[in-house]
Write a structure and sequence with these properties.
CATH class: Alpha Beta
Structural class: alpha/beta
Number of strands: 6
Number of domains: 1
Number of helices: 8
Strand order of the largest sheet: 1-2-6
Order of helices and strands: HEHHHEHEHHEHEE
CATH superfamily: P-loop containing nucleotide triphosphate hydrolases
Length: 190
């Protein structure tokens, strides 16, 4: 979900593990040549979701160790949920809607939050939460944690899982966001 901390946490985790970092929204912007709000305005949400799915497929296909901050709405499509589950560990950065609302403010630059950002986040959360739970291998409640604390938890879990913080190309690391996977960082190729 927007405001969960996918981008900041994802960058920190990638840096600490020495992995590549990808943000699905940034990849959409890179490949379309449009900002997310401009793509929504010009072509609509369906076009954004198509570009988002393409970005997710490319990110999960990389053979390199990578942390992917997955846009929160990616879980709306069943094929994206299947891809996330198949690509590695998904870590859901879970936050209450009121926490998300405090973090995103008025929602400027976020097309789905036009108008009442708080009400929109409550509605989005009610739709997406079951999907995040479906794909998440692990969940970190981030309401009272800063990005450094969340990143440290993810890195500690990865080191415990792999033994040394390094993993083979056959494994995958995911976490959203949000999902992003869910609402948090998702990664491929660990």
């Amino acid at each position: 979900m927007m405001g969960a901390g996918k981008t900041t946490t994802g960058r920190l985790v990638a840096e600490k593990l020495g992995w590549e970092y990808l943000d699905s929204d940034a990849e959409v912007e890179r490949t379309t040549g449009l900002t997310v709000p401009a793509l929504f305005a010009r072509d609509g949400e369906a076009a954004f979701r198509d570009a988002e799915a393409d970005a997710l497929r490319r990110a999960c296909a990389t053979p390199d160790a990578v942390v992917v901050a997955v846009a929160g709405g990616a879980v709306l499509r069943p094929e994206n949920r299947s891809l996330l589950r198949a690509s590695g560990r998904v870590i859901w950065l879970r936050a209450r809607p009121e926490t998300l609302a405090a973090r995103v403010g008025d929602g400027a630059g976020r097309p789905l939050l036009d108008g009442d950002a708080s009400a929109a986040l409550i509605s989005l959360d009610s739709v997406r939460r079951p999907y995040y739970a479906e794909v998440a291998d692990e969940t970190i409640d981030v309401d009272d944690l800063g990005p450094d604390e969340v990143a440290a938890q993810i890195v500690d879990r990865e080191i415990r899982t792999s033994g040394d913080g390094r993993t083979s190309g056959a494994d995958r690391e995911s976490g959203e966001s949000g999902i992003s996977g869910a609402s948090g960082t998702s990664g491929a190729g660990r």
